[in-house]
DNA sequence: CTCTCCCGCCACCCG
DNA sequence: CGGGTGGCGGGAGAG
């Protein structure tokens, strides 16, 4: 039967026979985590996706099915990438009703219900018949059922930044039903979300949705805790150990600990809207604790890359129970579960750290880094590296350059242990490197948003602020909200300083108070930032064209660097299983379990707290890893403190050197930043993960970069695409115009903001330039940098086709914090809806009939919002 | 083969 | 005690 169904594709897809499909699939499929859309193939073959799976396994009974053309629809959903799809997604996100419908259609159908599914299949059959197999392929594969995908769907139902006023309740049952999964799965998701305070348990089957408002705060706290725990050291130790394995036995690593105390802090919900009723009870949910710890590892890591084995070891050791390697496997499983959720949140992405021995699965933090609010950090970094530049906003860029130089050139800094070098040498190719990530760097706008948001929050404090904050009716237009990613070219780094970089910023920025930037202080004006945000809002609200310009910050961020990643950790490879024993005995071991949570946490958000960490991190926040102290990395044994760190970084450095440039951000500054809205293309972003290739990175001078911002679900569709062309020397420093489009909102308005008058015509087109970029949903920021404050310029003409409105931002000087930038794939959000694609819903769901609705409704989008 | 991680049994624990 | 939770690990899909 199956066969029958499939045939369509033949008809439809001109392209190739089934084989192709298969191939494609294969290609597409990346790791599981990633989103894969089969859709691409699809255009024609509607079928595939969902129905399939079952089909293969079960038979369809086409007869049964009514015919439902649905498939097509589904397909689309599945494929997020198309502009249309994006819109759809966005819209759906915005409006609950729509969401429901969508879900019902797409999401659910697939799965288990063979019956239903079949229907689809039938249609398919009609179409073509032959390619049954294909269908099978499409069948919900494991990927489709993955927790990551499920999580995306889950997240799609709720606004990232809900109005404070609206409290959204999540009914586990409803969600499970609507998503077509077992409740057990929902627990996994919710637990992780809870660990980040995105949700909190309200009652029995009820969770309250908080959204990301407090995420920065949470991350900040986790970072602090991580520091306290000395996770960095632990990681370093383990990594070192790995390196040295042969050489050294490990010494002791100390960990210090007081674990408990710290841990207790974990999970505190700072602002739980709901009383965290249950919070602590139970065993504490190791998943929650694990999730927090896992996040802490990233936050503390200079490279922002954490290998699973290291994470698992640390967790094992900490757990009070005796660490037994036997648990290693289990821990790793859990880490994958957590990682899938975090990936869906666009906080991390999967990468591989390649080491001599092989590659190790790892994840890279792509979420906000600066939530700490310390601008200082940035400053510090730059200062440390380049004191003189420090002030300059672009200093960061320079830093990159330097680093780059360092890599290429001498790494004196890196004295790194010889052994490390040896290793490196041994593998000329790329000893340690992050494989996947190479694609360009991209920043996540989200981080910026986070920054803003945070600031705002600080001002108003927590939730309250939300209400205050002007939020576009549509749920979430928070400026802050999710942003796309910026991608940067590595290359730029090389030439970082080239004038172009600042170009944009120059003009405009200056106008704004750049100084802040110069100082490196972001804080500068939280208030201002906030105001800025607000200002933005109106536009958003209008439903019309909105202009949101994260600009400065983005640029800044972007500048910041990404490099870090490369280093990767390295480290141990021990095996998964066996590893444990070897592991050190970390003392840490705080009892993880307790999540004491105390709710109250110290939130000091108010104050920037800047100080607290600032120094320590030095490098931390930024990925920059300047090896300050070459220290002996070699000694690994003493991971402990500082020394260790140094060592690690060093490694990184080495690595980086090898790495494709991609990683680095570089400051290429692109003069132009143009933002164009595109619905079409880029948006698709597809999964984040997409392999970025180096291509991007290597871009040529001429490339433009664009930044595309998609609106997360929360936002009604707000997509922005910025393109900056980096022009090499030739191009003037013009800042490109920016366009914003808000598809979600009724019309799609596009805005262009041009910093300076200069606009590149191209810019609009730009996007296409980089394939990758395009692909990414997020925005890519080119090198930008510049101090960037405001990007937007009133003057800038708009040029896009659609109605555009330009808004000038007030100048709010936005502080920019460079560091955070990273590429992210975050597309997840965007995709979500589609993603569903077939989620295959679970097989049997308990009886749930698919009810979808309720949950969504709850979502309420803030007032007007959505729909 | 290894990497991922889905799935769901079944222990907890709360009400 | 029943039901909500969620630890845990077998086992299988994907690569």
Automatic annotation (TrEMBL):
Q: Where in the cell is the protein located?
A: Nucleus
Q: Which SUPFAM superfamilies match?
A: Winged helix' DNA-binding domain (SSF46785)
Note down the stretches annotated as region Disordered: 252-282, 418-438, 565-644, 673-701, 825-867
Does the record carry Metal-binding as a key word? no
Q: Which GO terms describe its molecular function?
A: DNA-binding transcription factor activity, RNA polymerase II-specific; DNA-binding transcription repressor activity; identical protein binding; RNA polymerase II cis-regulatory region sequence-specific DNA binding
Q: Which domain of life is it from?
A: Eukaryota
Biased composition, class Polar residues, residue ranges: 673-685
**Basic and acidic residues biased stretches:** 595-618, 686-699
Record key words, sorted:
Activator, Cell cycle, DNA-binding, Nucleus, Repressor, Transcription, Transcription regulation
Q: Where is the E2F/DP family winged-helix DNA-binding domain?
A: 142-211, 282-367
Biological process (GO) annotations?
DNA damage response, signal transduction by p53 class mediator; negative regulation of transcription by RNA polymerase II; positive regulation of transcription by RNA polymerase II; sprouting angiogenesis
The record, for Pfam families, names: WHD_E2F_TDP
Residue runs in coiled coils: none
Q: What cellular component terms from Gene Ontology apply here?
A: nuclear speck; RNA polymerase II transcription regulator complex
Family membership: Belongs to the E2F/DP family.
Under what name is this protein listed?
Transcription factor E2F7
> What taxonomic lineage is listed for the species of origin?
Eukaryota, Metazoa, Chordata, Craniata, Vertebrata
């Amino acid at each position: 039967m199956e066969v029958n169904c499939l045939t369509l594709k033949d008809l439809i897809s001109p392209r190739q026979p089934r084989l192709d499909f298969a191939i494609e699939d294969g290609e597409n499929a990346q790791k599981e985590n990633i989103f894969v859309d089969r859709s691409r193939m699809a255009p024609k073959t509607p079928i595939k996706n969902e129905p399939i799976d079952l089909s293969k396994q079960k038979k369809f009974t086409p007869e049964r099915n009514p015919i439902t053309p649905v498939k097509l629809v589904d397909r689309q959903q599945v494929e997020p990438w198309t502009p249309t799809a994006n819109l759809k997604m966005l819209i759906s996100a915005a409006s609950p009703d729509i969401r429901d419908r969508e879900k019902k259609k797409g999401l659910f159908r697939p799965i288990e219900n063979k019956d239903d599914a079949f229907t689809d299949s039938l249609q398919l059959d009609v179409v073509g018949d032959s390619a049954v197999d294909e269908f099978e392929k499409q069948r919900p594969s494991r990927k489709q059922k993955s927790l990551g995908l499920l999580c995306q769907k889950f997240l799609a139902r709720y606004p990232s930044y809900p109005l404070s006023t609206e409290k959204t309740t999540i009914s586990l049952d409803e969600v499970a039903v609507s998503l077509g999964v077992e409740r057990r799965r929902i627990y996994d998701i919710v637990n992780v979300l809870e660990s980040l305070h995105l949700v909190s348990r309200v009652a029995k089957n009820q969770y309250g949705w908080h959204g990301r408002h407090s995420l920065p705060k949470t991350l900040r706290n986790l970072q602090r805790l991580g520091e306290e725990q000395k996770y960095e050291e632990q990681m370093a130790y383990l990594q070192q150990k790995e390196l040295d394995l042969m050489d050294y036995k490990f010494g002791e690593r100390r960990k210090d600990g007081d674990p408990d105390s710290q841990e207790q802090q974990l999970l505190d919900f700072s602002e739980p809207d709901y009383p965290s009723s249950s919070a602590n009870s139970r065993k504490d949910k190791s998943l929650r604790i694990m999730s927090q710890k896992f996040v802490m590892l990233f936050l503390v890591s200079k490279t922002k890359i954490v290998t699973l084995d290291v994470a698992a070891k640390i967790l094992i050791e900490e757990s009070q129970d005796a660490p037994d390697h036997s648990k290693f496997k289990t821990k790793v499983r859990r880490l994958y579960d957590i990682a899938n959720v975090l990936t869906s949140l666009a906080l991390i992405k999967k990468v591989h750290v390649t080491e001599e021995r092989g590659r190790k699965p790892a994840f890279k933090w792509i979420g906000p880094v600066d939530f700490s609010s310390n601008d200082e950090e940035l400053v510090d970094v730059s200062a440390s590296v380049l004191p003189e530049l420090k002030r300059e906003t672009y200093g960061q860029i320079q830093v990159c350059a330097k680093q780059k130089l360092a890599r290429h050139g001498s790494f004196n800094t890196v004295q790194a242990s010889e052994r490390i070098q040896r290793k490196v040498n041994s593998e000329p190719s790329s000893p340690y490197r992050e494989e996947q990530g190479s694609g360009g760097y991209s920043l996540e706008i989200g981080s910026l948003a986070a920054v803003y948001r945070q600031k705002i929050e600080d001002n108003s404090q927590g939730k309250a602020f939300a209400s205050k904050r002007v939020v576009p009716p549509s749920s979430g237009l928070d400026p802050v909200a999710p942003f796309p990613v910026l991608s940067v070219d590595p290359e730029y780094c090389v030439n970082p300083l080239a004038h172009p970089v600042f170009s944009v910023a120059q003009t405009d920025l200056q106008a704004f108070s750049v100084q802040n930037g110069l100082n490196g202080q972001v804080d500068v004006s939280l208030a201002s930032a906030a105001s800025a945000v607000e200002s933005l809002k109106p536009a958003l609200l209008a439903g019309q064209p909105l202009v949101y310009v994260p600009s400065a910050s983005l640029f800044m961020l972007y500048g910041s660097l990404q490099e870090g990643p490369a280093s990767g950790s390295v480290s141990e490879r021990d095996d998964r299983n066996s590893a444990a024993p070897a592991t050190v005995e970390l003392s840490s071991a705080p009892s993880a379990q307790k999540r004491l949570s105390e709710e109250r946490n110290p939130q000091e958000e108010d104050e920037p707290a800047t100080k607290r960490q600032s120094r320590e991190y030095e490098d931390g926040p930024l990925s920059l890893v300047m090896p300050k102290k070459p220290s002996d990395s070699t000694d690994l044994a003493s991971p402990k403190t500082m020394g260790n760190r140094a060592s690690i970084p060093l490694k990184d450095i080495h690595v980086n050197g090898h790495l494709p440039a991609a990683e680095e951000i570089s400051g290429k500054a692109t003069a132009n930043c143009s933002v164009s809205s595109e619905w079409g293309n880029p948006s698709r972003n597809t999964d984040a993960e997409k392999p970025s290739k180096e291509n991007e990175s290597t871009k040529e001078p001429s490339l433009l970069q664009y930044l595309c911002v998609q609106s997360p679900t929360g936002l009604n569709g707000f997509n922005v695409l910025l393109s900056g062309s980096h022009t090499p020397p030739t191009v003037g420093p013009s800042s490109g115009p920016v366009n914003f489009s808000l598809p979600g909102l009724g019309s799609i308005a596009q805005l262009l903001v041009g910093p300076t008058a200069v606009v590149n015509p191209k810019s609009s087109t730009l996007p296409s330039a980089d394939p990758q970029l395009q692909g990414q949903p997020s925005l890519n920021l080119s090198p930008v940098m510049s101090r960037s404050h405001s990007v937007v310029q009133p003057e800038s003409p708009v040029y896009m086709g659609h109605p555009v409105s330009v808004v000038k931002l007030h100048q709010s000087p936005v502080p920019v914090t460079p560091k955070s930038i990273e590429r992210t794939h975050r597309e997840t959000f965007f995709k979500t809806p589609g993603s569903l694609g077939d989620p295959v819903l679970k097989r049997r769901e308990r009886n749930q009939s698919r009810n979808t609705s309720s949950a969504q409704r709850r979502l309420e989008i803030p007032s007007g919002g959505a729909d």
